[in-house]
Amino acid sequence: STDPPSLFFSSMFRLTRFRSAGHLPMATFPQINPKTSEVFHSYAQMKDEDLQRIIERSGAAQQEWRRLPIGARIEALSGLSQILRAKADEGAALIQKEMGKPLAQAK
């Protein structure tokens, strides 16, 4: 089982995983650093059925979250907060690339 922050920071790679499994067409969209014009990642266009499957799983996850007692939600979010703090530099580096911000501002 992967913790929520790991899923959060790896989300930009999920489309690549779908594509490599043969679920996506070859059309891709570049992600470009606006400061350097560097293409640092590209995303594949999803098929409608893949998108629908993701939407359905997201809805099911929301319903499961909704049924959790408040204490369990607090515990989960507290753990998420700790992991996000530990990965702040990784998140800031991604923000720097995506938005072209200086690293200090991204933090």
Automatic annotation (TrEMBL):
Recorded superkingdom: Eukaryota
Domain Aldehyde dehydrogenase: 28-107
InterPro entries cross-referenced by the UniProt entry: Ald_DH/histidinol_DH (IPR016161), Ald_DH_N (IPR016162), Aldehyde_DH_dom (IPR015590), GABD/Sad-like (IPR047110)
A GO MF term: succinate-semialdehyde dehydrogenase (NAD+) activity
Protein name in UniProt: Aldehyde dehydrogenase domain-containing protein
Source organism of the structure: Noctiluca scintillans
